[in-house]
Design a protein that fits this description.
Oligomer: single chain
Structural class: alpha/beta
Shape: globular
Number of helices: 23
Helix content: 55-70%
Strand content: 5-15%
Radius of gyration: 24 Å
Strand order of the largest sheet: 2-1-3-5-4
Largest sheet: 5 strands, mixed
């Protein structure tokens, strides 16, 4: 929270804010729970970035606590439970994710609670807890679709171990049914919106830089200093018959997202389970307290050294002048939005009065549109064909003049007969992010009304 107001709003956060003003049962690239949380948060603290990020920071804190509970269910003593929470606290994945308001943090908490319940079931708890697990999965499906990967991996883990007899009970299947019932509202939205989420998901297959990059990024997200815990934890689970299904689940999650071409961070929420088991293994394997203290000190020191990549602790100008924003693109996406809106506003105000009566602003992506919606005052309607923004456009759009950002002149030439560059986007820090250097166009003489051209502009990438 000490750095929750650094640099500015991230493009995704601006999109979630826009989504919170258009509450629905679904969105193209995520389910409805995260926008709903943003709506509630901003109703209490309107316009507050730290308040918005507080929700994901609390979710991250929740994962720390749940990881300790997982370790306890695995039979850990107090030191191992504390270390499990510490491992999550210093993990690069969790450090980097929870500073931004996004689905990832809430997804991580869902996975952690699901893993806790799964471990309890493997340990022999009341089989009716499968209903609780189904409830958690239902909430997860309305939070981030990637929780499906955890469900597949759990089934594989059960089938590959002597816990497969649990599938003969009715309770796991009742849990599945409960999860599907909770998911039905989103499925109804998908059916009414051309199954765009499916198209979007398949369009992002292989979105990593290739199979090698997937595993390299896994190594970095786990934390090089925590790799021994991951390996030791999986080995520890494998050697204990009741928990062997959990070991298979961890491996299956990693392989599932690798084989389907998912992004490297998709399986990362399983780390909470792996860290917890790894800490049990570590405390059992390393008996000398001084060795433990040295190992923990080294792990924490590595995290502290790398902290500027995970958290916005550097002053804004220092970051802009450094290489760090190139290593962490999220930081670059927090810069320049007020500058962009100011420059678009200037272009609009310089239009002849006759043009202002029938003008719209067309943004190529949700970040630009979200910034114009959030920061813009006295601007004409802003539309974007990108992802769910596509569905928020008015039904009738026949502007004679369109201010356009984010498109190339040749592309715009297929829609307009008169195209004039009015400005070039910059930012006050000179940080060359995606928007920096993009042209702001004034387009007139539409070859076809904008509402008729809208389906051709639709973008699901």
């Amino acid at each position: 929270m000490a750095v929750a107001d650094r640099y500015g709003w991230h493009r995704d956060e601006l999109y979630y804010m826009a989504s919170s003003r258009h509450l629905a049962l679904g969105y193209v690239d995520y389910p409805p729970i995260t926008p709903l949380l943003a709506r509630v948060d901003q109703a209490i603290f309107p316009g507050s970035l730290p308040a918005l990020r507080l929700l994901t920071i609390l979710a991250g804190a929740g994962v720390i606590i749940v990881a300790a509970f997982i370790a306890r269910e695995l039979g850990a003593n107090r030191p191992a439970q504390v270390l499990a929470g510490l491992a999550v606290l210093i993990s690069p994945m969790y450090v980097g994710a929870n500073i931004l308001f996004q689905t990832v943090s809430f997804d991580q908490l869902v996975w952690a609670v699901a893993c806790l319940l799964f471990v309890r079931l493997l340990r022999g708890s009341d089989p009716r807890e499968w209903l609780l697990l189904g409830l958690v999965f239902g909430i997860g499906l309305e939070t981030k679709y990637t929780v499906i990967g955890l469900g597949v991996a759990i089934v594989i883990g059960l089938l590959a171990s002597n816990q497969r007899q649990q599938l003969a009970s009715r309770w796991p299947w009742l849990g599945v049914g409960l999860a599907l019932i909770l998911f039905l509202p989103n499925l109804a939205w998908q059916a009414g919106h051309h199954w765009d989420s499916v198209t979007y998901t398949f369009g992002h297959r292989g979105a990593t830089d290739g199979p090698i990059a997937y595993w390299v990024q896994q190594f970095l997200l786990m934390g090089p200093q925590l790799i021994p815990l991951i390996v030791g934890g999986v080995w520890w689970l494998w050697r204990r018959e009741p928990f062997r299904a959990a070991a298979v689940t961890i491996v299956a999650v990693e392989l599932f997202f690798f084989l389907v071409g998912g992004k490297a961070y998709y399986p990362a929420p399983i780390y909470a389970l792996a860290y917890a088991a790894g800490c049990v293994w570590f405390v059992e394997a390393v008996r000398q307290p001084w060795i433990r203290r040295v190992a923990v000190a080294i792990a924490v020191a590595i995290t502290v050294v790398l902290l500027p990549i995970g958290l916005p602790i550097l002053p804004a100008k220092t970051l802009a002048d450094s290489w760090v924003w190139k290593a962490r693109k999220d930081f670059a996406d927090m810069y320049g939005w007020p500058d962009l809106v100011e420059q678009v506003t200037t272009v609009y105000q310089q239009l002849p009065l006759g043009d202002r009566s029938a003008v719209m602003i067309l943004a190529s992506n949700y970040g630009e549109a979200g910034a114009l919606d959030f920061y813009g005052h006295g601007l004409p309607p802003v539309v974007s064909p990108h992802l769910t923004y596509y569905y928020w456009a008015p039904a009738h759009m026949t502007p004679s003049t369109v201010i356009v950002i984010g498109y190339s002149r040749p592309y715009l030439g297929t829609f307009f007969g008169d195209i004039e560059q009015a400005a070039t986007i910059t930012n006050s820090y000179g940080l060359r992010n995606y928007e920096y250097g993009q042209a702001i166009w004034i387009c007139r003489s539409p070859l076809v009304p904008l509402d008729q051209a809208w389906p051709r502009l639709k973008a699901l990438d």
